[in-house]
Amino acid sequence: MVTGKLPDHLSWSSISTYVQCSLKWRYHYMDRLEPEFTPSALVFGQAVHEAIGAFLESTLTGDRLSAANLADVYRQVWLSHDGPGVRFGSKETEDTLQKKAGALLSLFVDQYRGDTEVIAVEEPFAIDLQELWPEERCQLPLFVGVVDSIQKQNGSTFLIDYKTTARKPNGSVNVMQLVGYSMGAAGLGYDPDEMDYRYDYLVKTAQPSMVSCPVPVEEKDRRRFLKTVDRVWEAIQGSIFYPNPSYLCSSCGYQSRCNQW
Ligand code: SF4
After folding, report:
1. Rounded to two decimals, what is the model's pTM?
2. Which residues lie closer than 8 Å to 105 by C-beta, 6 or more apart?
3. 242 C-alpha to center of ligand 1: Å?
4. Which atom of ligand 1 is found nearest the CA of 248?
5. Which of 7, 36, 96, 185 could, after both became Cys, cross-link 190 (CB 3.0–4.6 A)?
6. How much distance in Å is there from the Cα of 9 to the middle of ligand 1?
7. Ligand 1: which of 30, 248, 260 to mutate, most ligand atoms within 8 Å of CB?
């Protein structure tokens, strides 16, 4: 049986953390332990993400921010980080990351299509999965998230999730987040079957690039998503927590504690 306090909701980040390493999930989402460090990629991604959000918001007012403005937003977000100290990767410094962010955001502004109609930016949702999941193996919690953006381009409506990454996606992306977000969009009043879904990756290689990965979402995918959440939640309630060492351990802030497990 679980002895700590279970969260009353799950996000995609929480679900994917559990799938990657259930012990890390327990430390973070249940025991709420402070990690020993914050990986630079996390702060970098959040800061770039906020800069893109600020740009999309600015298109709604018709007074678009420039790439220099976005670099300022990035800098402000970076400086406002007040969690555990940032751990940098090899050959990385605050300055090299600021330059990479500037180059990526500049590319983002350059490639932004003038015919884009931004419909929504950073829209939060909370949906009751139990209503969508007829099996009663366990009572599912709320599923919460934030839709990065909904945009119209070429007569199609896209739900877009922006990601920063160190490498170009190789074609096989994990579709499940957008499958879950299609249900979130339904909760926000959109018709999920009238939308297209895609991840837009900002690739922070020496030569920065942007890669769009369309994700087809069908009803069978939603059922698979719900089944996954159901099994994850059942395992959490059954106190199934154990280390799953992988390449992800290098960016895990619970290594010392995990070593004593
Ligand atoms: S160090 Fe690795 S195995 Fe241990 S909790 Fe973190 S991710 Fe899991």
Report:
1. 0.93
2. 48, 51, 52, 55, 67, 70, 71, 74
3. 9
4. 7
5. 185
6. 23
7. 248
How many A from CA of 176 to the centre of ligand 1? 22
Phi-psi region of 135 (alpha: psi -120 to 50; beta: other; left: phi over 0): beta
Whole-number Å distance between alpha carbons of 160 and 197: 6
d(CA 45, CA 97): 11
Hunting for tokens 């009803």 — which residue is that? 219
- Whole-angstrom distance, CA of residue 165 vs CA of residue 231: 29
Query: Distance between CA atoms of 49 and 204, rounded to whole angstroms?
Result: 13
**From first to last of its 261 residues, what are the pLDDT tens digits of the chain?**
445 689 999 999 999 999 999 999 999 999 999 999 999 999 999 999 999 999 999 999 989 999 999 999 999 999 999 989 999 998 899 999 999 999 999 999 999 998 999 999 999 999 998 877 766 666 788 999 999 999 999 999 999 999 999 999 887 888 999 999 999 999 999 999 999 999 999 999 989 999 999 999 999 999 999 999 999 999 999 999 999 999 999 999 999 999 999
